[in-house]
Amino acid sequence: MTIKVEVLFSEGCLRTPLTVERVQKISQKIKTPIDLTMVQIDTYEEILEWSFIGSPTVRVNGSDIDPSARGDSFGGFT
Question: What's the half-sphere exposure (Cβ side, CA atoms, 13 Å) at 29?
């Protein structure tokens, strides 16, 4: 079984490389392959399209890893 992981990020986000490293380490630790997709968010339209709440955002199989980010609003929008 492969786990789909998306890392959404803004250009210049200093936390993104460490986040990707941690995702890869977790994949190795649980001995489960991941399908890692990096998504750079550059425009307001992309913020809306991806429901982007901040950089970096990690989603596993489509769900944000932060439970508080799974509600009906994002980035100050509802």
Answer: 6
Extract the tokens encoding 41: 């968010």
Strand order in the sheet with 3-9: 34-40, 3-9, 57-60, 63-64
| Inter-residue contact 59 to 8 (CB < 8 Å) | yes
Q: Which domains does the chain have, with CATH numbers?
A: 3-70 (3.40.30.10)
- Kindly report the pTM of this predicted structure: 0.84
pLDDT tens track for 11-66: 999 999 999 999 999 999 999 999 999 999 999 999 999 999 999 999 999 999 98
